[in-house]
Each structure stands twice: as C-alpha cells, then as structure tokens.
Amino acid sequence: MGLDISGIVGLDLSLTSTGFARIGLNPKIEPVFHNIFKTDPKEGTDIERCLKIAQEIVMHSTKADLFFIEDYAYGIKAKASRLATLGELGGVVKIVIMKHTKCEPFVVTPGTWKKFLCGKGNLNKDSFKLEVFKKYDIEPMENDDAAAIAICDFAACALRGEKHREMLKYEQACIKKYREDHPELRTRLQALANRLVD
User: Fold this and answer.
1) What is the mean pLDDT of residues 28-43?
2) CB-hemisphere CA count at 13 Å for 117?
C-alpha cells in the first residue's frame, strides 16, 4: 500500500447480492459511490461466484483504498451450507483484497455499525434504506448497499474521527469502543491516519 490512502470502501457481503460503497477522503470532491454486485446461483459454482464478486470489488476500488467488511453474524440461524458459503465468500474476498492492496481488511460487527447508524444495534434489515436516507440524504438501491454505505461512513470516522465529519455522542461512543475492543486495529488505524495529509 502506498503512502496515501485514496479512499475507503464498505462491504456487506452476500453471494447473491453484495453491497459496495466507496468514499474519497474529501467527500465534497468525491462523494459516496454505491453499487450492488449480484450473482446468479444457476451460473457457475459457488467458488466461481465468490471470485466474480471479489473481482467486481477490486474493479471498483483502488490499490490505496482501505476496506471495512461486515463481520459474520455468528448468532444468526441459517443452514450450515449457507454459513459455509458465506465463509468461503469472506475468505475469497479478503484474499483478493489483500493481493490487490497489500493491506488486510478490517471487520466490523453488524451491531456496531447499526448502532453507529442510528443508535440501535438491533436495527431490522428492512429499515436500512430509510435510516441511511434520513442520515446521509443518499437513496440506496437495496438494503445491501444501504448497509455498505453505513459501514463506509463508520470506517471513515474510525480512521479520521472529527476530521471526517462532526460526530454525535453515540457515534463517538461506537468509535471509542471499537478502538478499545480492537487494540491491534487501533494501532493500524493510527499509523494509517498519521500518513494522511490534511
């Protein structure tokens, strides 16, 4: 990874519909770009579909971007096959990102970014689009890119703090706890933040 970070990417991974959001370090010049990368279960094997999504992600990002991915929701009830596939997707995407950027992606739990979005960690998925629209005045296409947009903003604030934008108290608390819970990530974030030119 070069001396400068060119942008921040937020990802909500799904084999059928992955949410993607990217923001430049100067939002006024380079506002949030968001998209959804879909694959058809009838077209290719699961691993081929995983690779296709990973390739779409790096195609829409730069080698100097910083990536934040929604961590696995370990408490969800789902078929073992679905969880295994999601694990494969996460592994493939992380490996491709590391090869592309030379930097390991960060992860953030669903409860953390949801609480950062609206103050409630148990936000229902059907509310993502509305909450994102209310907070950022951005109209997501689906819940998937809505989640990615929120993760992207969380990442920008985790990296730059108040230099990114003014934060509410509950947002500040989320960032503080995230850094406390991930001391190794806090060190990486600080090192990266120190390399940014204000």
Assistant:
1) 90
2) 30
